[in-house]
Design goal:
- This protein is α+β, with helices and mostly antiparallel strands.
- It has 2 domains: 7-125, Phosphorylase Kinase, domain 1 (2-Layer Sandwich), CATH 3.30.200.20; 129-244, Orthogonal Bundle (Transferase(Phosphotransferase), domain 1), CATH 1.10.510.
- The protein is 43% helix and 21% strand.
- It has helices spanning 7-20, 58-68, 82-102, 133-136, 142-162, 198-216, 224-233, 239-244, and strands at 22-31, 35-42, 47-53, 110-114, 117-121, 124-125, 128-129, 165-166, 175-178, 181-184, 191-192.
- The strands form 4 sheets. It has a 5-stranded antiparallel beta sheet, with helices on both faces.
- Strand 6 (124-125) and strand 7 form a beta hairpin.
- Helix 5 crosses helix 7 (224-233) and helix 6 (198-216) packs across helix 7 (224-233).
- The longest helix has 21 residues, at 82-102.
- The termini are far apart.
- Bound molecules: adenosine-5'-triphosphate (ATP) and magnesium ion.
- Adenosine-5'-triphosphate binds next to strand 1, strand 2 and strand 5.
- Residues 173-174, 186 line the site of magnesium ion (MG).
Amino acid sequence: MEEVWDAQTLLAAYEVMRRLRLDRFAGVVSAGKEARIYRAIDRQGRSYAVKIYLTATAEFRKSIWKYLLGDPRFSGIDTSNTKKLFFAWARKEYRNLLRMYEAGVRVPKPYLVYKNIVVMEFIGKDGLRAPLLREIARELSREEAVMLAKEALKQYELIYCCARLVHADYSEYNLMYLDGRLYVIDVAQAVSLDHPNSSLFLHHDLENIHRFFSRQLKIELPEVEELERWVTSCQRKCRREKEARLP
Ligand SMILES: Nc1ncnc2c1ncn2[C@@H]1O[C@H](COP(=O)(O)OP(=O)(O)OP(=O)(O)O)[C@@H](O)[C@H]1O
Ligand SMILES: [Mg+2]
């Protein structure tokens, strides 16, 4: 185990392994500023992505206020306690993942949250993570790029209209590409629509998508304002509504 794991994280990881019957950790997938993502394998050889929040940088502390404190689901959190902050952040990521997953958004299936650890479906093949949209941008044909632009917007529509959330960090860096499909990742900062900054975050997310597809990949897209009107008009039927109408 790596030296960056404190004793509590180590114990928490053992508990996660016990609960999910994981056999072993099989290396680091990504080492970000706050979190590390590991691949873990269960006794049947299935892969999982295990995201562990490890270090609260000053930047992180400063930036998460606007996502955590404005979210009515997380009011009353003691933000002076680093451990508790991470537990809340991990729980927020898990709950956002679950809410999106249940609404039919293509996100990694969430399995478990425990303390500062979130376990979800591993997006990849043969033990290797899938590339980010950013990483395959140059290899895309025009047809593929058009298809993925529609796909990125459709996933956003599902997030907004069906999960009733705003991602708040939606870009080519947080979309993974596997078998012609996009997976939405990194959802801890997503907020509900009643968050005071949700319209601002929405605008920024759609700007990112617009910039990537229209400026970088030269795909013709309506203006950001029009995309915004389209997303927020919520013309699509959501899963739950559909299911509710079934006998
Ligand atoms: N479910 C998953 N399956 C496989 N790989 C994943 C999964 N989730 C994330 N990754 C990989 O780990 C990287 C970091 O994940 P994520 O964006 O959730 O974490 P982060 O701490 O916010 O990192 P960053 O600061 O780099 O955005 C992703 O870019 C992706 O390459
Ligand atoms: Mg990310």
